[in-house]
Amino acid sequence: MKLSYSTLATALLATLSVSSLAADVTIYGKANVSVQSSDEGEGSFTEVKSNASRIGFKGTHELSDDLTVVYKAEFQVDLDGDSAKGDSITDRNQYIGLKGNFGQVLLGNNDTVLKQSQGKVDLFSDLNGDIKSLWKGENRMSDSITYKSKSFNHFQVGVTYVVEDSVDGDDATSFAVTYGDAALKKSQWYAALAFDSEMKGYDVTRATVQGKLAGVTLGAMLQTQEEVSSGKEMDGFLASAKYSIDSWVLKAQLQTANFDGGDDKSGVTLGADYKLAKNTKLYGFYTTFDMDSGADEDYLGAGIEYKF
């Protein structure tokens, strides 16, 4: 889907104009831009990167005491200007659905429940150290139906079904069971077990846990994945830790990916955030990837993130 800035602005203004007729409409977004030195095996270069900056609107509309419409339309905006003409605004999660005593059902373009199951364990999401650099499973799927149950004793079940969309197409399924609060505000621990079946050609199993211990937030993930067509497998591990000191947050993350045939890959990222205000931070990071069969990669950057 390709949109001009004027088209997006018109849509958002229209949403504002009818907000008095609908319940709980929220316009939100995030601007995240970094300046960094990047070396992808052919020498270093300097670049300005827009790291999944976005704008969107979301809301609910209560139809009755036990039935509510939920919706979201989110777009990625490339603030660095590097996108090809007409591609500077692209789709992110966009859906509509119903929520009630049965849980919620969402139809549209949405992250799979396996992707969502990572919670907040990936401390460098949207940057070069994002777990998608080494692992499969970070999928946002169109033509999807997602169901999530209500929470029972902190447990919740979720399923994503991706329809075939054509006579020759293939369907796919994602399943997850989670425990606790991913933001660690309502619980001290968060855990999840998730599975993908034939999602973008891969079967994936992922286990996630994160919690707070002596002031340090610790996280870990285990993943196995198999390419359906070839049977090639990978086993991976991730560990992350962060610690807050006044306005600073110190972060570290290690990720491995061990493939059949001895093609081992690993990545290490170190970083720090400095909070300027509740919705604004400065940050710095260093990411290095050790690739057995490919060129090693290094990234050193600093940036600013503003949420609204």
From TrEMBL:
Could you confirm whether the keyword Zinc appears in this record?
no
Q: Tell me where the transmembrane regions lie.
A: none
Q: How does it sit in the membrane?
A: Multi-pass membrane protein
Q: Which Pfam families match?
A: Porin_4 (PF13609)
Q: Where is the Porin domain?
A: 9-291
**Does the keyword Transport belong to this entry?**
yes
Question: What keywords would UniProt list here?
Answer: Cell outer membrane, Ion transport, Membrane, Porin, Signal, Transmembrane, Transmembrane beta strand, Transport
Q: Which InterPro entries match?
A: Gram-neg_bact_OMP, Gram_neg_porin_domain, Porin_dom_sf, Porin_Gram-ve
Protein name per the record? Porin
What is the species of this protein?
A: Thalassotalea castellviae
